[in-house]
Every structure is written in structure tokens, then in C-alpha cells.
Amino acid sequence: MPIEISRRIFHVKRNLILATLLSAIALLTTSCGTGDKIGSVSISATGASGGVINLAGLGGTLQLQVTANYTSGKLIDETNFATYTVTPEGVDDTGTPLPAPPLTLTINSTGMITAVDPAVCVWDNLGSTATPSWFYNGDYKIVATYRGFSSNPIFIPIASAADPITGQQGQCGPSNN
């Protein structure tokens, strides 16, 4: 009789060990146990043409995209789950410091930036109307945060007002053609 009891106990231990071993193998092969972690977060503006970012026109929009970059190389769009910090930098084309949002621009929880009143132009033309050479004096620096990771900043110049400088025919900033 003592032999049967010890066999039964040994049989239970063997099944427990086998179940534990199989669980560990399952976790390791599905990467649940290895911890695929966020390595960084990046931000970009979709719809910016020609490599130029310009929030053009009152009511104009730009869509931001926030990507979580995982250590495994996986990239996941987390735009709707990020929070955004917007900081005005510089001045408009009249030398007035840029106001803080929600003046001039707004950004919603899905990363959509919209130009709103009061309209401003941060661009200056060093060239002529026929051959413009644009540069900007101010922008809005935007940083996205997701799960404690902050993105690289993205700089958004804005052209929601007509340029008051004589000879510019109201043009503000590069065209998106």
C-alpha cells in the first residue's frame, strides 16, 4: 500500500512538472515572456507635400501620426492614444509673438491640427513674388507622449492669414502645389 500512495504522488508531480514546462515553452514561443517593449515614439505629419510642412489657410488641417517603435522592430500607430504638448516658438511676419493654443491652432485627441482665429502668417519671402524664397520666423513645436515615451518634436509653421507686406499680393508661405 505505501508503494501505491508514493506512485500516485509521483504521478501528480510529473503531470504538474510537464504542465509547467509546456506553459513556459508556450510563453517563450509567443514572445509573452520575452517582453516586446516600446523603444521609442515618433511623430510625423501626413499629407505634407513636397517635404514642406505648412498649415495653410484658416480652417486648414494637418493630420499627425504617432508611431510606437517596439524593440522587436514592430511599428504600431498609436495616434489616437497619444497626448500632445504644443509650444509656440518665435513670431509672426509682423514681429508679434505667437499666441498659445487654442488661439491660432487647435489639436484634437486624434492628432488633427486645425488653423483657427486669430489667423497668422509666420512666413517671410526673401525673393520676389515670381521667384519666392520662403523662410519662417515662428512655428508650433508639438511633442507626442505615449506610455511615458516622448516623441521627437515636429515643427508646424502656419499660414492662415494673408501676408500684409506690400508686393506679396497676400501670399503667405510656400504653395502646396
Short description:
By secondary structure, the protein is an alpha+beta fold.
Features:
Immunoglobulin-like, 16% helix, 177 residues, alpha+beta, four-stranded antiparallel sheet
How is this structure best described in words?
With 177 residues, the protein is of the alpha+beta class. It has two domains: 35 residues; 122 residues, Sandwich (Immunoglobulin-like), CATH 2.60.40. It has one helix and 13 strands; from the N terminus they run αβββββββββββββ. The strands form four sheets. Strands 1, 3, 4, 6 and 7 form a five-stranded antiparallel β-sheet that branches. A hairpin with a 4-residue loop joins strand 6 and strand 7.
Distance between the termini: 91 Å
- Write the element-wise H/E pattern from the N-terminal end onward: HEEEEEEEEEEEEE
Q: CATH first level of the largest domain: which class?
A: Mainly Beta
Proportion of helical residues: 10-25%
Per DSSP E runs of 2 or more residues, the count of β-strands stands at 13
CATH topology of the largest domain: Immunoglobulin-like
Into which percentage range does the β-strand content fall?
Answer: 25-35%
Model regions low in confidence, pLDDT < 50 over at least 5 residues: none
Q: What's the rounded overall pLDDT mean? A: 83
**Tally of helical runs:** 1
Number of domains: 2
CATH architecture of the largest domain: Sandwich
The chain-level structural class is: alpha+beta
Describe the oligomeric state of these chains in a short phrase.
single chain
Shape: elongated
Gyration radius (Cα, Å) is 28 Å
* Major sheet attributes: 5 strands, antiparallel
